[in-house]
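Field reference: "sequence" (input) and "structure" (output). Example, LysR family transcriptional regulator:
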Amino acid sequence: MLNPWRLRLIDGLDRLGTVRAVATALHLSPASVSEQLARLEREAGTSLFERRGRLLELTPAGRRLAQLSREVLQHLEAVEVELSEMGTEAMGVVRVGGFASAVSTIVLPAMAALARSHPRLELQVHELEPHDSVEALHRGTCDVVVTFDQEDVPLVEDPVLRRTELTRDPLLVVAAAGRRLGDGSAPVRLEELAGERWALESESSQLGRLLPGRCRAAGFEPHVVARCTSLELLLDLCARDLAVTVLPQRAVSQRGDIATYPVEGLGERRIWALVRRGTLARRAVQVVREALVAAAQ
């Protein structure tokens, strides 16, 4: 009989591409992963892998087993959930991941509401970058994640996951309080900001890559004077009138020394709650998802 734990390893190899990446994701050594995959191949009685240089690649039989493994693991998870929650009360631990502004404005209010309404339910919160969220669900390190996509970079459909749109978050220009942007009308046109100094998020962030492209599409190259990973530093630069920036509305704290302005063409990001389909039978996960929907309104 095939070992379910080893099925998780071949699923990871199919998704992540290398033995080392699987080992890192599951906190194992590469040698241990290789040994377990070799045992799985012996259990299967057919060739699942082939070596190309230092890489271990799936054969057609290996790719098919990886696909079936996801279905098997999802079913086993649903069975475990059903057995563990024969009652209807939401209880136990639910691990929720999300990016910083969503944690502050959605997850924490939901957590506070659930502490009052479901005292036997415990939320454990993990701050995650959006690009790490889906993998956290697949690894099983989170039960629910809050993430986002842009209109022009949508979330990729994943048959293992169920998603629920929580809200939409418009992108705004942030500047010093009292600053006049463009001709003073609202919304501002992006091309009117061609002469501004810009402070942007790091180039590794989705927003840090998005804005320069939008500026170029509007006919100018932004004059970037700062790249920051700290949200407060971005806001401080704006408050001192040293730069302007673009941030989602939910990421901007209430401060008297800054102001926000809508800008034509910047669009919005959609904020989603994602869960593994196998956990949807769990009452606690249902309750957390419902609380996130309510908190996002």
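DSSP finds nine helices and twelve strands in the chain.
The mean pLDDT is 87.
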